[in-house]
Specification:
By secondary structure, this protein is an alpha+beta fold. It folds into 3 domains: 1-77; 95-169, Alpha Horseshoe (Serine Threonine Protein Phosphatase 5, Tetratricopeptide repeat), CATH 1.25.40.10; 178-261, Sporulation related repeat (Alpha-Beta Plaits, 2-Layer Sandwich). It contains 13 helices and 4 strands. It has a 4-stranded antiparallel beta sheet with strand order 2-3-1-4. Strand 2 and strand 3 form a beta hairpin. Helix 7 runs antiparallel to helix 8. The longest helix has 16 residues, at 81-96. The two termini are 41 Å apart.
Length: 263
Amino acid sequence: MRSFFFALLFVISAHAQVGSFDYENELQNTNTPEFRKKIEYIIRNNPGTVEAIFFGAIIETNAENSIVAYNKVVEKFPRSDFAAKSLFKLGQYNYSKGLYVSARESFLKLLNDFPDSPLFAKSAYFAASCLCASKKINECSDELKRFISEHDDSELLNLAQLDYEELRPGPQQFTVSPKELRFDKNAKFTLQMGVFTKPNNAMNYRNFFTKLNLPAVIRKRKMRNKPIYFVLIGSFQDKNTAEKMGEKLRHQHGKPYRVVKIK
């Protein structure tokens, strides 16, 4: 049945392929060689089109070349749905590289130019997250509050509420020593610093902390049959101690956290 479907796919028109190709779903459910064949077929039969440029960026192995292609989509086809998708990809890339100002610019442009985009709510959340990552805590808190009131049906609502609750201003600045975060095999709690669906994003976020000599680790779990990657720091005997350390990290580095039980 699978081979029949694949053969049928190649005899339909290229135009129909572009219109019906759900690349996000395919990327999750199709093995890489087959996915690449479908993409390459679309590119060959639609040279110079926005689809060809965008899908070329999707399968490009060099991240910098992908960024050039996404920018080309935004510049040459500014009203296309692919421009919205490209802006979101640019925002994700820059965020993963720690370029929060540039990432926020992409997310805000998507919000301004594509108010009806399916990516609107996600962009609003990540635009706010860029503020927090840039240590603009008050502005981040304000945008998260607005997000919660305007996007109560978003899949990111719970995460935004957690972020908002944890962004309480503290009375003073703290510093964190790596010794304070040493591993305790009898610990009951840890600090969840981030949750990601892509392993590269999780690794980039972990590296932010490891460059500061803070012992961050990545743990993989499955949720709804999809892998989720958690960036964790420290281990603590009680929740109160974990909260205090989380506040220290937040004040020092502007990163939100969540105290979770060690399973």
